[in-house]
Design goal:
By secondary structure, the protein is an alpha/beta fold. The chain contains six helices and seven strands, in the order βαββαβααβαβαβ. The chain binds guanosine-5'-triphosphate and magnesium ion. Guanosine-5'-triphosphate binds next to α1. It is found in: Endomembrane system.
């Protein structure tokens, strides 16, 4: 799925994953980028970056996926990444009432620090742990509906609905991009098919970006 450096890319989108410690943000990205799952918990220090190029409909999309640390001490650092994001995925753990109660706080912070056209999405992870589920699908759907954002459920462990969540989020980013840029183009350019956002980036690997300042 990775792209060569001179491949045609239609969109480059930044996606930021946020949410409490241990909800599975890194696991979701590890599953999505490397199709791997790790049982042991290694908390993220600062911010990590993973990159994957995908095809959605007839477009090639390069996703820069920023994995933020849930720990409070990294809040300020991670907040800096929200502004450059085309999408922010708020992750909670369906077996943790506490992580669900904190969704509203994450949402408000994301809204405050992101752009108006940033797509926000709610994702309940660890859906494989049916016996210890604390938050029903209906409750989560209802919260998402009240915030006017989409809701998805996934299991990074079983690789359930992970790809679908990123594909659906990518479609939403494409829609938001077209809507936003149409609104800012003169009438005679609104039918333009040229939708390149920025130069394709060359790196196609995971790296620790604790000290990066790309925003
Ligand atoms: N059963 C199950 N366990 C999961 C799933 N996703 C993650 N985990 C486990 O949950 C723990 C925490 O996962 P991480 O991905 O490190 O969580 P995180 O959100 O990145 O945590 P921070 O980096 O501290 O913010 C690990 O032990 C994972 O193996 C899942 O879908 N199902
Ligand atoms: Mg992590």
């Amino acid at each position: 799925m990775e792209s060569s450096s001179n491949e045609h890319i239609d969109y480059v989108f930044k996606v930021v994953l946020i949410g409490d410690c241990g909800v599975g943000k890194s696991s979701l990205l590890l599953r999505y980028s490397d199709d791997f799952f790790q049982e042991s918990y290694l908390c993220t220090i600062g911010v990590d970056l993973r990159i994957r190029t995908i095809s959605v409909d007839d477009k090639r999309v390069k996703l820069q996926m920023w994995d933020t640390a849930g720990q409070e001490r990294f809040k300020t650092l991670c907040g800096h990444y929200y502004r450059g994001a085309e999408a922010i995925i708020i992750v909670f753990d369906v077996t943790s009432e506490n992580s669900f109660s904190n969704v509203l706080r994450w949402y408000e912070e994301a809204r405050q620090l992101s752009r108006q056209d940033t797509v926000l999405v709610l994702l309940g992870n660890k859906s494989d742990m049916a016996d210890s589920r604390a938050v029903s699908t209906e409750r989560a759907q209802s919260l998402a509906a009240s915030l006017n954002i989409a809701y998805f459920e996934s299991s990074a462990k079983l690789c359930d609905n992970v790809k679908e969540t990123f594909t659906a989020t990518t479609r939403k980013m494409m829609e938001a991009y077209q809507k936003h840029h149409r609104a800012h183009l003169p009438d005679d350019l609104t039918n333009s098919k040229s939708l390149h956002m920025s130069q394709p980036i060359k790196s196609s690997t995971s790296l620790n970006c604790f000290d990066c300042s790309i925003m």
